[in-house]
Amino acid sequence: MSCKSLLFTLAVFTAALPAAAQEDSLLHEWRVLSAQSELIKSNTPYLVFDAGQSSLSMKLGNANVWVMKEDSGTKPLDIERMTRDFKPDSELVFSVESVRLLEYEPRFPDSLLKIVSDALDMAPSLLQREIPVSFEVKWRNGPTLQVYSLPENDPVKPTVSFRQRLGLIFSGFGGADYEVQTDREMALTLYRVMQRGALTLVLR
Q1: Each residue's pLDDT tens digit, 162-184
Q2: Cis amide linkage into residue 76, ω under 30° from 0
Q3: Which of 61, 89, 109, 156 has the highest CB neighbour number within 10 Å of its CB?
Q4: What is the DSSP letter of 125?
Q5: Which helix (H) or strand (E) holds 169?
Q6: At CA 27, angle to CA 21 and CA 33, rounded to 5?
Q7: Which of 175, 138, 179, 173 is nearest to 157 (CA)?
Q8: How far apart are the first and last CA of the chain?
Q9: Winning range, highest mean pLDDT, from 4-8, 69-73, 78-82, 127-131
Q10: C-alpha span between 31 and 78 (Å, rounded)
Q11: Is residue 195 within 8 Å of 101, Cβ to Cβ?
Q12: Closest by Cα among 183, 136, 184 to 164
């Protein structure tokens, strides 16, 4: 190929880049909208990790149950970094592989029960009666997140007994990739929704 032909080919390729990039962007937007549409139609709560907004939200249909920003709470969560641990990058929707309860309080008050049942549009009798103080969520082809639920203004992490830690090691739980502290309402809805097979939308 002559130098002139090579320059012409390179010029054509360079000129086509913006259009190709635009096409990729439109294809990505279409995939995001399609995934959101399927999750909305499922009529079940789901999580959304949004790196662009630095937020983690729980949604039911197209409405937010709650939204947690990256800088909220005493143990902030690096949303952008966490979204990179969901593989492959071409996938948008991931399912929960397992949930492990580490610490809990035996019962929670009726006032909290009513708030959570109203938010999830679910009968109070169907909700867990325990307050999850600490639990782990593991995503299939994704990271592990440990959630702490503590009384307001109490930054101290709950301790896990030696017996529990030993059980976690032998069962393959070598420690969480990420940790976050939330209020009790968030933790309770998260624990109730994020059972095996629950879906999560990851926006990188």
Answers
A1: 434 444 444 444 457 898 888 88
A2: no
A3: 61
A4: G
A5: helix 162-170
A6: 140
A7: 179
A8: 41
A9: 78-82
A10: 24
A11: no
A12: 136
